[in-house]
Amino acid sequence: MDIEFLSSTMVTLLKALPVTLALFALSVSIGCVLALVIVWMRVGGNRYLAGFAKGYIFVFRGSPLLIQMFLVFYGLAQFDFIRNGPLWPLLREPFVCAVLSLALCTAGYSAEIFRGGIRSVPPREIEAARAIGMSGFLLVRRIIAPIALRFALPAYSTEVVLMMKSTSLASLVTVWEVTGVAQRLISHTYRTMEVFLCAAIIYLVLNFIVLQAMALLEHFLSRHLRAAPPAAKA
Amino acid sequence: MPEVPRLSVRDIRKSFGAHEVLRGISLEARDGDVISVLGASGSGKSTFLRCINLLEVADSGEVWVDGEQIRMVQKGGRNRPASQKQVDHIRAELGMVFQSFNLWSHMTILQNVIEGPVHVLKRPRAECVEEAHALLKKVGIGDKANAYPAHLSGGQQQRAAIARALAMKPKLMLFDEPTSALDPELVGEVLRVMRALAEEGTTMLVVTHEMGFARNVSNRVAFMREGLVDSMGSPQEMFGAGASPAFRQFIGHFQA
């Protein structure tokens, strides 16, 4: 085993880590906010908004992320009003296109995950909140959202891990993140095995950290489900 | 000036599909009244109670709380409250205790009790916490403030739910079969709390199967049958010789 080559590869790949992390952090956070808007439309009670949300979810869950990314990256430039529009300086950047398509896609999946969480909230607990005079946003913020989050978390953490891995697709629209840099390295060295092994290790470590953080959050949100400390038992 | 009733319900009607559950119920509760609502399963007692705070919306009829009428409008062929804001404000004045407690499972008992005062009434938290501790002590679970609902017995959960309703300083307490989901040995502790409330002059409307409570604690008993108030009167009248035949038959089942 060529330790020297492996470690120099690792160093090169780690230089691309900030790009991967930025892709991940931006797309997950924008996607999460977008998902909240979509799930609000989906369950808010307005027929037209619900229909739009359903369509959105269907389109972004039903088509391959890579194609969505190609459509954003290569497709947007075909429209004159976009090329001449105020957002063009942003939209012509591969990085922005990658974040946009990742965020749009995860929003579709996350909206469905959040909807599942909301549906699991016991109706009785919502009724109790209504009975003390809560409605609208207060009811959502104080009762529905915290309970729904707890139910949605296991599925959502899977989605977040998938997003970390999906950032590698950005290499195909010329974003130099970890996978992209790995491919460039291979084209110079022809040492596929070692380079991709290093890349895989980076993604594994990242996802290990993400999963640990999610598990910690889940542990924190499940306090009420754990057995009472012996002293507190009746 | 005549006294304004705490609660006045006039000619409430409610159907689920073709089934008419409430066929014109009227009832009035004055300050300090403790009214037990009795009736067989399916007689509409719970639906009636839920129509008062609009957890169910009646098809027609009026609800007045402390002289304020809940405004209704016809919309899309259905009776609906005119203002969600007014509904919220009326609900905040009515304490509701449910059959299955309905505590918020993700909050401690203390958080359950202060939730309404802090977030609905927007009162200072420190003050609410202090009052909550006093209320929990009063219902006999002062040591459970930091426990979660799942860690409590049914009777303790129901007493916590009563404390949660009381924390809103309601004008009227609504109890929807508060002891029906409890193991028999836990019924007594909840009834004792309710009795203490009645003795303090809390105005209460109690849907129940507890004949002892209806007879000994309430000052009025209403008997519902097939969506109507079949008969109503003081416990002496209702459980005495002049009771309606239907009610006499109903309580007969409990003496078997």
List the helices and strands and how they pair.
The complex is a heterodimer of chains A (234) and B (256).
Chain A: H1 3-15, H2 17-43, H3 47-62, H4 65-75, H5 80-83, H6 88-91, H7 94-119, H8 123-131, H9 136-166, H10 178-189, H11 192-221
Chain B: E1 7-16, E2 19-29, E3 34-39, H1 45-52, E4 60-65, E5 68-69, E6 72-75, E7 78-81, H2 84-93, E8 94-97, H3 109-120, H4 125-138, H5 154-166, E9 172-176, H6 184-199, E10 204-207, H7 211-216, E11 220-225, E12 228-233, H8 235-239, H9 245-252
Helix pairs in contact in B: 3-4, 3-5, 4-5, 5-6
Give the key terms.
heterodimer, A: 234 residues, mainly alpha, MetI-like fold, 11 helices, B: 256 residues, alpha/beta, four-stranded antiparallel beta sheet, 12 strands
Explain what the structure shows.
The complex is a heterodimer of chains A (234) and B (256). By secondary structure, chain A is an all-alpha fold. In chain A, 78% of the residues lie in helices and 0% in strands. Chain A has eleven helices and no strands. Chain A has helices spanning 3-15, 17-43, 47-62, 65-75, 80-83, 88-91, 94-119, 123-131, 136-166, 178-189, 192-221. In chain A, helix 1 (3-15) packs across helix 11 (192-221), helix 9 runs antiparallel to helix 11 and helix 10 runs antiparallel to helix 11. The longest helix of chain A has 31 residues, at 136-166. Helix content of chain B is 36%, strand content 27%. In chain B, helix 4 (125-138) packs across helix 5 (154-166) and helix 5 (154-166) packs parallel to helix 6. With 256 residues, chain B is of the alpha/beta class.
Percentage of residues assigned to helices of chain B: 25-40%
CATH topology of chain A: MetI-like fold
Report the top-level CATH class of chain A: Mainly Alpha
Q: Which pair of protein chains has the largest interface, and what are the residue counts?
A: A-B, 28 and 38 residues
Largest sheet of chain B: 6 strands, mixed
Class computed from helices, strands and strand pairing of chain A: mainly alpha
* Mean pLDDT over the full residue set of chain A: 92
Largest sheet of chain A: none
Tally of extended strands of chain B? 12
Please report which band the strand proportion of chain A falls in: under 5%, 5-15%, 15-25%, 25-35%, 35-45% or over 45%. under 5%
Residue ranges of chain A: pLDDT <50 for 5 or more in a row?
Answer: none
Q: Structural class from helices and strands of chain B?
A: alpha/beta
Strand runs of chain A, count: 0
User: What value does the Rg of chain A take, in angstroms?
Assistant: 22 Å
Element string of chain A (H = helix, E = strand)? HHHHHHHHHHH
Alpha plus pi helix count of chain A: 11
Shape of chain B: globular
